[in-house]
């Protein structure tokens, strides 16, 4: 019986020593990977939020383009100069609005690309070619 208690006590002491060595050695790589994964998940969440705002902006551009098409059809049937002039002014303001939104979307997409490149450098994926890098993307 004394033998059993001695062995169990010795195994407990050995386990405790190993645990102390592990603590002194530094953090566990699995824990570091979990932290990196959490950071990547939050970065991905931010990226997806930005992508969703870009989609909404593109949807608003589509709506304005539909209005422009309707205004164009309406302009074909107008004969009064005042009505034609006001419709032309509305069309011009809609075109300027679409241009501003398109520039805004372009800058947002470029910023997302820069952030993606920075995240790739930080995560060590710089050397890997992705499909996006291989395609000739023009905005």
UniProtKB/TrEMBL annotation:
Q: Which UniProt keywords apply?
A: Protein transport, Transport
Kindly list the biological process annotations in GO that this record carries.
Answer: protein transport; vesicle-mediated transport
- Its domain of life reads Eukaryota
Keyword Protein transport on entry: yes
What name has this protein been given in UniProt? SYNTAXIN
Q: Which N-terminal residues, if any, form the signal peptide? A: none
* A GO-annotated cellular component: membrane
Residue segments, region Disordered: 116-139
Tell me the ranges covered by the Syntaxin N-terminal domain, including all copies: 39-138
């Amino acid at each position: 019986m004394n033998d059993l208690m001695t062995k169990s006590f010795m195994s407990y002491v050995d386990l405790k020593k190993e645990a102390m060595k592990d603590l002194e050695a530094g953090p566990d790589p699995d824990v570091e990977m979990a932290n990196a994964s959490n950071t990547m998940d939050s970065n991905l969440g931010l990226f997806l939020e930005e992508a969703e705002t870009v989609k909404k902006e593109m949807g608003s551009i589509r709506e304005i383009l539909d209005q422009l098409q309707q205004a164009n059809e309406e302009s074909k049937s107008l004969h009064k100069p005042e009505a034609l002039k006001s419709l032309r002014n509305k069309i011009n303001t809609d075109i300027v609005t679409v241009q501003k939104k398109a520039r805004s979307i372009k800058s947002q997409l470029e910023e997302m690309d820069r952030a993606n490149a920075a995240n790739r450098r930080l995560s060590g994926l710089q050397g890997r070619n992705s499909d996006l890098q291989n395609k000739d993307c023009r905005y």
